[in-house]
Design goal:
The chain has 326 residues and is of the alpha/beta class. Helix content is 43%, strand content 17%. The protein has a seven-stranded parallel beta sheet with strand order 3-2-1-7-8-9-10, with helices on both faces. Helix 1 links the parallel strand 1 and strand 2.
Length: 326
């Protein structure tokens, strides 16, 4: 099956690690609106697209020795490079060698034997702008959640600066050819939503032959989705795209023991869980819900069980193909 995934951050890379065991035809479309950390430094210093989310997705889809994976994630601890990752510098070097991202990413894909490819959502230099419920607005992905928390305001809407950012031609082709399109998981407003703000992307997704799944986050994020349930996440996506974009929602229905979310609660996060009332409302919106225990906890980090989601998608495609043969 050909899968196109839209997102960014840790959520997307975790999902990709599971999906690559079920198909080698994955296109990961990654947000490039981030401006913080080592990526932000390289963006400002070299005038390049921020490489951080692309690096994480490349590593997730790679078929290379563990030592190389460790090297790509290595962060320098001292000197001028303090806080910078080797993987970011590698992408920056490839960009300078080949002169453009599309060529550089193709070469990186060959080097790391990717199960698919990683593409930036746009090649344009773009920033994320958030409009808050108190009427204020803030520009810059890294500052949005902190500013929203400080002003005790919810994010009402986000947009890109400049307003019109064009997708890659390769992204357009991949959407047209996809069997499955996945939106998320990842930070709703700062990782997932920027991809849907690129020109014509929501309409292309809606009009494609692919079945569209939204993988809802397991936990809320302070300053972004405080007190959000699954339905709130879906409504936010619809608000930034269109009401027909999602066919299925994949949502967790398993309660996590209190002792395992204690650290998350301390940071202001809460569990996002589906219930019968939300399912009823979503089905009335013509959105089907697949609910199960999709949780995997590793080293006290709560993540999606990407293997289970991958198997679910494979079963769906097989069933669909069998129905078409009949």
């Amino acid at each position: 099956m050909k899968i196109v995934v839209f997102g960014g951050g840790t959520g997307l890379s975790v999902l990709l690690r599971g999906l690559k065991h079920y198909t080698k035809d994955i296109s990961a479309i990654v947000t490039v609106a981030d401006n913080g950390g080592g990526s932000g430094v390289l963006r400002e210093d070299l005038g390049m697209l921020p490489p951080g989310d692309m690096r994480n997705c490349i590593i997730a889809l790679a078929d290379i020795e563990p030592i190389m994976l460790k090297l790509m994630q290595h962060r320098f601890k001292d000197g001028y490079l303090n806080g910078q990752s080797f993987g970011n510098l590698f992408i920056a070097a490839m960009y300078e060698i080949f002169g453009d991202y599309e060529h550089a990413l193709k070469e990186i894909g060959s080097i790391f034997r990717l199960s698919g490819k990683v593409l930036p959502m746009t090649l344009q230099d773009t920033q994320l702008k958030a409009y808050l419920s108190n009427g204020e607005c803030i520009v810059g992905e890294k500052d949005i959640p902190e500013f929203a928390t400080k002003t005790d305001s919810k994010i009402d809407k986000v947009s890109l600066v400049p307003d019109i950012c064009m997708p890659l031609e390769e992204t357009v082709r991949d959407i047209q050819e996809a069997d499955v399109i996945i939106i998320g998981p990842g930070s709703l407003y700062t990782s997932v939503m920027p991809n849907l703000l690129v020109k014509s992307i929501p309409d292309m997704i809606t009009n494609s032959k692919a079945t569209v799944f939204y993988v809802c986050n397991l936990m809320t994020q302070p300053g972004e989705t405080d007190n959000y349930n699954v339905l709130d996440h879906v409504n936010a996506i619809i608000k930034h795209s269109n009401r027909h974009i999602i066919d299925y929602v994949i949502a967790n229905d398993e309660l996590i023991p209190e002792e395992q979310i204690e650290n998350y609660k301390y940071k202001g996060s809460a569990q996002v869980i589906i219930d019968k009332e939300q399912i009823k409302t979503l089905e009335e919106m013509n959105i089907r819900v697949i609910s199960s225990n999709f949780i995997e906890i590793r080293k006290n980090y709560i993540r999606h069980n990407s293997g289970k989601i991958g198997q679910l998608l494979l079963n769906y495609i097989n069933e669909k193909n069998n129905q078409q043969r009949k």
